[in-house]
Amino acid sequence: MIIITGQTATGKTKLALELAKKLNGELINFDSRQIYKYLDIITGKDKDALTMKQWKNVTIWLYDIVTPDQYFSSFDFIQLVKPIIKDIEDRGKTPILVGGTYLYLKHLLYGINDNNSPPDFKLREKLNSKPVNYLQKILIKLNKTAFENLNHSDQLNPRRLIRKIEIETGVKIENRARPSPSGAGFGLRRQVPFQFKIIGLKYRNKSKLRQAIKERVKERLKNGAVDEVKKLLKLGYMSNDPGLKTIGYQQIIKYLNKELTKKKAIEDWENKEVQYAKRQLTFMKKDKNIKWKEI
Length: 295
Known about the structure:
Elements: E1 2-6, H1 12-23, E2 25-29, H2 45-53, E3 60-61, H3 74-90, E4 94-98, H4 102-110, H5 121-127, H6 132-142, H7 144-148, H8 152-155, H9 158-168, E5 197-202, H10 206-222, H11 225-234, H12 249-256, H13 262-284, E6 290-294
Parallel strand pairs: 1-4, 1-5, 2-3, 2-4, 5-6
């Protein structure tokens, strides 16, 4: 199994397609935003799809799985991706996973240890009525790293925050994770069930990263990013829906609501993308199985 991951705007899909051609492969998306229907231009799905049309007979799985108002977790991803990987392998082809949502990848390869902690229903009842920013502050106070390891969507998801708080408030987790023989160094609780190779793409310097993101934002605006958001709002989706809690969509919604000027919205979009790319690299660097390629 080949895995292409790394920072945003590094050309992961292009590399995955090249490898698919060489290795008789099929692509599997693990970008947590591209799994959503109707989120095409801002997530780059439209461009990826256009690129794939130039490559005959290349299949990509796990695009357009859920609607923007549905929550989709790493657990949901694993339940879907495992039979797909098996199906591709059974047909004599190479599974090629491509995406930047490292949490999905981490849980697929190394397991999830949250499930060993029993629920605390009294705590849940106490926290259920609390706003997201309150839950964020509690989790950061309990374990800042646990909060930072959540993807952007989970950081804004009350259910996920409450579950993390539940784990961190002294509920004993039996069979605490032990280091994996893979050497990934996460305190992983079981051996890796797949044979795999991970290629990570990252920018050699920050200025190249910022410039690439700036150009990409400009291109997506030119391709109709604002109209895409208008269409989503017209369909009845809201800014607090899981799919729309996404960089780019949030800024354009604020622009449409006259909370930001267009210039400020674009600046904020670019800055948030750069910050996200830096966080991606911080998390991924901990995985010693990733072989890095600088661009």
